[in-house]
Design goal:
Layout: H1 4-12, H2 23-28, H3 34-49, H4 57-69, H5 73-91, H6 104-118, H7 122-132, H8 141-147, H9 149-162, H10 167-175, H11 178-191, H12 193-201
Helix pairs in contact: 1-3, 3-4, 3-5, 5-6, 6-10, 7-9, 7-12, 8-11
Length: 203
């Protein structure tokens, strides 16, 4: 599940340095083990940011999600800033200028965004295909996406107007590079192909 680098972060950063006085850190830590706490926070950061844009993201993210949610808002803000810094590198997507998640609500919105981009989009993708009125049994997905991008964009906009989506997800869908959005949409369609077929047949 994890890369060797992840374990190095966890194990290597868990070792106290003999020349460092940890008295103040012990007082301020939640568990009384500041070095181990710091190593875990770095491990959670790596488990999220290093896997963004990879097939292993969901498993790694979900394995640490509950632990991350238990961290203080200040500690989660550090992770959130790391996620923001990686958006361009991992997805070729940037939020508006100087975006900084300050509150827990802002941080949660960022979690919703990467969850949506990576794996929590089945209902959205399925709803789009319901209104495209195509026969998925015979359609060539790549060709359809290339030739019907305007229709897909129109259905995405309709979804945004008729359903509630968290702010950052709506921004992503409205401002993401059009070619990249179509590429993302088709990739997720391929991954959800069976689920989409089942959903359309239930209509």
């Amino acid at each position: 599940m994890y890369k060797d680098e992840d374990l190095k972060v966890l194990l290597g950063n868990s070792i106290e340095e003999p020349e460092v006085d940890y008295d103040d850190e012990i007082v301020e830590s939640q568990t009384g083990y500041p070095v181990e706490e710091s190593a875990l926070k770095q491990f959670y950061d790596v488990s999220v940011t290093d896997y963004m844009g990879t097939k292993e993201f969901k498993d790694n993210y979900l394995s640490v999600k509950s632990k991350i949610r238990m961290m203080s808002t200040e500690d989660q803000q550090l992770l959130a800033n790391s996620i923001v810094d990686r958006l361009d590198e991992k997805y070729d997507f940037e939020l508006f200028l100087n975006y900084t998640p300050y509150s827990q609500g802002d941080i949660n919105e960022l979690y919703y965004l990467i969850e949506f981009i990576e794996y929590d989009h089945e209902k959205f993708i399925t709803n789009i295909w319901k209104y495209l009125n195509v026969d998925l049994n015979s359609i060539q997905l790549e060709k359809f996406c290339e030739q019907n991008d305007t229709k897909i964009f129109s259905e995405i906009e309709d979804q945004l107007q008729s359903h509630y989506y968290p702010e950052l997800i709506a921004i992503f869908l409205r401002t993401y590079n059009k070619d990249k959005l179509i590429e993302w949409f088709c990739e997720k369609t391929r991954n959800l192909y069976t689920s989409i077929l089942i959903s359309l047949r239930e209509e």
